[in-house]
Specification:
- By secondary structure, the chain is of the alpha+beta class.
- The chain has helices at 24-35, 40-44, and strands at 47-52, 60-65, 68-74, 81-88, 97-99, 102-104, 115-117, 122-124.
- The strands form 3 sheets. Strands 1-2-3-4 form a 4-stranded antiparallel β-sheet, with helices on one face.
- The longest helix is centred in the first third of the chain and has 12 residues, at 24-35.
- This is Intermembrane lipid transfer protein VPS13-like C-terminal domain-containing protein.
Length: 126
């Protein structure tokens, strides 16, 4: 009597969006996010987009995630990326505007300064 073998084929579950082809551009953006602050932002944020801000893409890059907008500059000594500034998406209060080849982002002003003043002997808000 012959052994009966069942053949199973592996199938991939395809959601409504389908499979996306590999994009080296998006992969470089994910890599930027992974290397920021030793992966701190990769644990909390989801990559959306990035763009070089000069002719040389190795000098300044804008990186956008679901929670932050970053301006990154290449570190000349170590070769990594330095965060020049970061803005939380929740703090952006209007649609960014392009004027004279500049991107203007209006941000909510955070007034949260608690300074210990030795003159009055307690915490003061200035």
């Amino acid at each position: 009597m012959l052994n009966s073998w069942k053949i199973y084929s592996k199938s991939r579950v395809v959601f409504h969006q389908g499979l996306k082809p590999y994009s080296p551009f998006q992969a470089s953006g994910y890599r930027l996010l992974q290397h920021l602050s030793k992966g701190h932002y990769a644990d909390t944020d989801v990559y959306w987009a990035h763009a070089a801000l000069s002719q040389d893409p190795q000098t300044a890059v804008a990186l956008i995630t679901d929670k932050h907008v970053f301006l990154l500059e290449k570190c000349r000594f170590w070769g990594g990326w330095d965060i020049q500034w970061a803005v939380r998406v929740d703090d952006i209060i209007s649609i960014p505007v392009v004027a004279d080849q500049r991107l203007i982002i209006t941000v909510r002003q955070v007034v949260n300064l608690y300074i210990y003043n030795t003159y009055c002997g307690n915490s003061c808000i200035e």
